[in-house]
Write a structure and sequence with these properties.
Radius of gyration: 22 Å
Strand order of the largest sheet: 1-2-3-4-9-10-11-14
Bound molecules: flavin mononucleotide
Number of helices: 15
Strand content: 5-15%
Helix content: 25-40%
Structural class: alpha/beta
Largest sheet: 8 strands, parallel, barrel
Distance between the termini: 14 Å
């Protein structure tokens, strides 16, 4: 029998939970307990991993003011996902944990050291979401006057990867000998400086952390420009993509696999997964009504536009809400996300685009069985490798998590589409299981 299983992940960020919802948690998740609970629930449901997205600024793009984000708690406030990853790691035993860390903000040595430490703390379940940061205001928090252009960001990130890979390998797998009789903890001949002296970085090494269970963390990436795709095909174990329709998804995955094969990598070692926001209820009519209620709720359109403005560095308040966008928009920021949102050529008005939101062009509204069936069909058509669940504005609610874990997951498992246990002990083992 063929293995039809695909990977399932959860995408969120360390921001206020769904605080306006009657079933919300009150908007104060800062002690991390809410996210630790959520991670335990995802682990019980056999999710592959949880990913904490991150940004490094309070956006002032929407209407030229921080009000657009802070008023609704959209994109900001946002706490640091790295310490949260540790807390979530101690609350779980099998779930993969991904923290976003920006090459713009972290010097490579500090990033490699933190990632190695967390991989040890979680016994080999840590992953790094590699981002270069794509917002002007983020760059200005790190001594720059402007965000470097995309190609330069990737060029710097390419050298950054050389440095961290060398650092992760600066301890040979057998460097720690723990020889009690002769009093030798580590064999110093197996811990080597890296002496990197490049265009952007100069790092002597070695790391002062022992080699972690996975050697290096799992690498996650989400670029969609040609340069971003090549970068992902070269370095990533997991690639995140907005789901912009079956044809685009198939093309994207095939392109990544072709690029990877040309670089000498086994395409099956890269998992391309797509964003979804299923809306579930007891009947399809109820699910559709629920979706309508959500998009018609107070502040939804405004929050969505504030959110997409912050992500793309384009102020969407400048466009007429009931007209199509005047032309195809381009950004030095997240072009792929922008393209998914603007659906250029569709003729939809900005309000219709905002209603459709960011996550998915797939119709995943219905009963758990209907949605599970559709997800299986989509995977069949695309070829793999799975999905990641996002909530609108990435604000989490226990109720939504329960609908997915108690409704959708059993429906997927029943069809043989999702794992029912963890065969491996590390994140990478579980990723490569199928
Ligand atoms: C699903 C998804 C998740 C992303 N997560 C983050 C993130 O957490 N932090 C960040 O700064 N950028 C994030 N990005 C932006 C990408 O890392 C990348 O900078 C952006 O897509 C621009 O690269 P590109 O021009 O190659 O598409 C994300 C993008 C996508 C599509």
């Amino acid at each position: 029998m063929t293995d039809k299983r695909f990977h399932l992940a959860w995408f969120l960020n360390f921001t206020p939970d769904e605080w306006r919802d009657p079933f919300g948690q009150g908007g104060q998740p800062w002690d991390g307990q809410f996210y630790m609970d959520l991670a335990r629930t995802l682990e019980r449901a056999c999710f592959d991993f949880v990913l904490f997205e991150d940004k490094l600024m309070v956006s002032e793009i929407y209407r030229g003011s921080a009000e657009g984000c802070l008023r609704g708690g959209v994109i900001a406030p946002k706490h640091d996902p790295v310490p949260l990853a540790v807390a979530v790691g101690t609350a779980t035993t099998h779930l993969g944990i991904v923290a976003t860390m920006s090459t713009l903000g972290y010097p490579p040595y500090l990033l490699a050291r933190a990632a190695s430490t967390i991989d040890s703390l979680t016994k080999g379940r840590f992953a790094w979401n590699i981002v270069t940061s794509a917002e002007e205001l983020a760059a200005r928090n790190f001594g720059m006057d402007a965000l470097p252009p995309r190609d330069l960001r990737y060029e710097m990130a390419e050298e950054y990867m050389q440095v961290v890979n060398k650092l992760f390998d600066s301890w040979a797998p057998d460097a720690v000998v723990l020889d009690r009789e002769n009093g030798i903890y580590a064999d110093h001949t197996k811990v080597k400086p890296i002496d990197h002296d490049g265009t952007y970085f100069k790092v002597r090494g070695p790391l002062n952390t022992v080699r972690s269970p996975q050697g290096r963390p799992v690498y996650v990436q989400a670029g969609s420009s040609p340069t971003g795709r090549s970068f992902g095909a070269k370095h990533a174990d997991v690639i995140l993509s907005p789901a912009s329709g079956i044809d685009d998804m198939r093309e994207f995955r095939a392109d990544i696999r072709t690029r990877a094969a040309k670089l000498g990598r086994d395409p099956d070692s890269i998992k391309v997964i797509f964003a979804i926001t299923p809306v579930l209820a007891d009947t399809e009519a109820e699910a559709r009504a629920k979706e309508r209620r959500m998009v018609e709720s107070d502040g939804y359109i405004d929050d969505m536009l504030a959110s997409i403005s912050a992500i793309t560095d384009i102020d969407f308040s400048q466009f007429a809400i009931d007209e199509p966008l005047p032309h195809r928009l381009v950004t030095n920021g997240e072009q792929g996300t922008l393209d998914r949102f603007q659906e250029y050529g569709s003729g939809k008005t900005l309000r219709q685009l905002a209603e459709a939101g960011l996550a998915s062009a797939l119709d995943l509204t219905g009963t758990p069985d209907q949605v599970a069936e559709r997800m299986g069909d989509v995977m069949d058509a695309v070829g793999g490798d799975g999905f990641f669940v996002c909530q609108p504005f990435l604000r989490s609610s226990r109720r939504y998590v329960m609908e997915i874990t108690e409704g959708l997951v059993p429906a997927l498992q029943k069809r043989g589409l999702m794992r029912t246990g963890y065969a491996g002990s590390t994140f990478r083992d579980n990723l490569l299981e199928f």
